[in-house]
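Action item from last week, closing it out:
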Amino acid sequence: MRIADAVVDWLLGGDPSIRWQVLRDLRDAAERTVERERKRVAETGWGARLLGMQRPDGRWTRGIYTPKWTSTTYTMVLLRSLGLPPRHPRAMRACRLLLDEGCWTDGGINYWRRSHQRSETCVSGMILAVACWFGLDDPRVDRLAGHVMEQQMPDGGWNCRAMPGYGHATHGSFHTTISCLEGLMEYERFRGASGTCAARGREFLLVHRLFRSHRTGKVAKPEFTRFSFPPRWHYDVLRGLDYFRECGAGRDPRLEDAIALVRRRQTPDGRWLLQNRYPGETFFEMEEPGEPSRWNTLRALRVLRWWASDMR
């Protein structure tokens, strides 16, 4: 896939968190070049701004999970997406805090102990991804991974409403499934562990062609077709495809509908727009809805590049 130089140059004019991923995923730059740029995430731009807002106790704002999206949980989820390097001391402190405050007797994460006696699966997947990305070597991380695996449903997906007290759902959720898959992907990288859970989870998404009802073939939810960044806890097609690319999954014809959707969303100048923003409290906005999005353009281009390379 040939990528227009003007679009790549535009991407490279963005934040360090964008640039290091462009160098790695679109330019095939040398590892030392990529790492040099990635280190700048902590020094300048969006990553440095977020780190500068961390409180002396390791938290962001007053809560672990709320308010959305300025809590410690969602700030750490965002810092992972920006690519803050592993083992950054401020991130490590926050990772320990997330486990100290959330680890529950069942091995998962429960920040709502007064109202719930079971861990929350979606949040457990997010915290697993964060802890493994930043390299927190703690036995609680292994228990957390085990808990996430245990929550997988018969259809291969995950759903935070499948547990007693959360609604007794019987069908996997796209939202919970992508969080758990990302968490297990980071755990596999961190510990070198592998298993059948991730493959079954990918099959759940493939059966749904990433955004369709497996019964009717219709779009499951319109918001799945609108590309957002940061996605927070939400699923969309671009997030799903980027996961398939990142985990090294092979080409599957059931991804073709999703790939076609990404291609249709490209504007005549070769970029993609920020189509959606999830309401909530933020420290700052990185991009404006309806405007060209470096995040969506980067992710769409690397997904299409992966898809094209897998065809050869």
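Closing note: The domain at 5-309 is CATH 1.50.10.20 (Glycosyltransferase).
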